Fold this protein.
Amino acid sequence: LFTFFLLSNFVQQMDHSLIQISTNEISRVTYRFITDELNGSVFNETNLDHILILEQNQQGEILYVDFNLDQAYQVLDQVSSILTHSFDQLESGNVSVQYLDSDLSHELGSMVLSIPIGNSFKHMYFYNLGPRIPVRINFVGSVLTNLKTKVTDYGLNNALVELFVYIEFKTQILTPFDVEEITLKYDAVIASMMIEGKVPSVYGGVIEKDSTIYSKDIKS
């Protein structure tokens, strides 16, 4: 019974470490991957003048910010399409070697992270010791996106307008002992500009606005 208790406790501790390490690694890889994928397409093409609607009073104060829905949905559809295709490429390994390292590989259409069993001891001297345990990582569900704007007072009589795209998706982590789904969320600035005007003090110097959420299945 004592041996069973020790073994069970070790397995739970090891499983927790595998999921935590895998979560950190997939967060690092996907954040860099998403930024690079969007930088070459959406980031350089988005025009705030076509998407945002700013209403000002006679004193030049910005009263509210809104979206041109047609243009907003075009951007969200473009972002979602790029990401669903990119996730499929990342999962199958059809990406630049810069996103890979000695611990991350691809097998049978999934990402596989090889983690030394020494990580379970939570001691720096054991991190790279012992046999490596494979952890399979898959993208599941849908990519959820929406646009967020932030208008901030900047200088004496200027405002900084920033357009963010909010990205949310799920990954499935399969260890030898458990399966867990985690949700990853990112905010990425895709456009910004300075305009003449200021935010009224009643808003606290900042006006924010969210569009509706756009969803696209990762596996289609």
